């Protein structure tokens, strides 16, 4: 306004050009920001799809490991390996909870069996010691 009133046509033209260039630049910036946001959203969607796919694969692997243990085709160590390999991808899933429950049951069963074997071995050792003592006494009596 001031430039127009004072008759500075050159300044008026420069200001008008600058304002139209600034408006165009703002429009281009808005488009670029919008495109950037769309690209970010697409990356997030792809990452979410990849994570969902990884979760599904991890859950399937855990279910297979549980089934293999129940059939007797796999042991506690194989189940532990499957759990360790898939814990992060299947975090919070029912498949992971089921695998952990079975792992705990198998580990507890293994401990119980080891204790029972130890008790049995101790009984056998005591019986052998009693027999040896009895044989020694019998040999002394002769």
Can you walk through the features of this model?
The chain has helices at 2-6, 9-71, 76-86, 94-141. With 142 residues, it is mostly helical. It starts with a helix and ends with a helix. It contains four helices and no strands. The radius of gyration is 39 Å and the shape is rod-shaped.
Summarize, please:
This protein is mainly alpha-helical and 142 residues long. Helix content is 89%, strand content 0%. The protein is built from 4 helices and no strands.
Helical content, roughly? over 70%
Rough outline: rod-shaped
Report the sheet with the most strands, covering strand number, pairing sense and barrel closure: none
Mean pLDDT across every amino acid position: 83
Low-confidence stretches: none
List the helices and strands and how they pair.
Elements: H1 2-6, H2 9-71, H3 76-86, H4 94-141
Helix pairs in contact: 2-3, 2-4, 3-4
Features of the shown structure:
mainly alpha, rod-shaped, about 90% helix, about 140 residues
């Amino acid at each position: 306004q001031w430039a127009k009133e004072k008759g500075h046509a050159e300044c008026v033209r420069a200001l008008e050009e600058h304002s139209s260039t600034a408006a165009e630049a703002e429009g281009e910036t808005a488009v670029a920001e919008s495109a950037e946001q769309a690209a970010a959203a697409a990356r997030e969607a792809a990452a979410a799809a990849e994570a969902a796919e990884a979760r599904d694969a991890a859950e399937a692997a855990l279910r297979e490991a549980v089934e293999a243990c129940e059939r007797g085709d796999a042991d506690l160590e194989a189940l532990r390996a499957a759990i360790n390999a898939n814990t992060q991808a299947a975090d919070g899933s029912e498949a992971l909870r089921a695998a952990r429950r079975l792992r705990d049951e198998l580990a507890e069963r293994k401990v119980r069996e080891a204790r029972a074997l130890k008790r049995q071995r101790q009984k056998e050792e005591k019986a052998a010691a009693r027999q040896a003592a009895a044989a020694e006494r019998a040999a002394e009596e002769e």
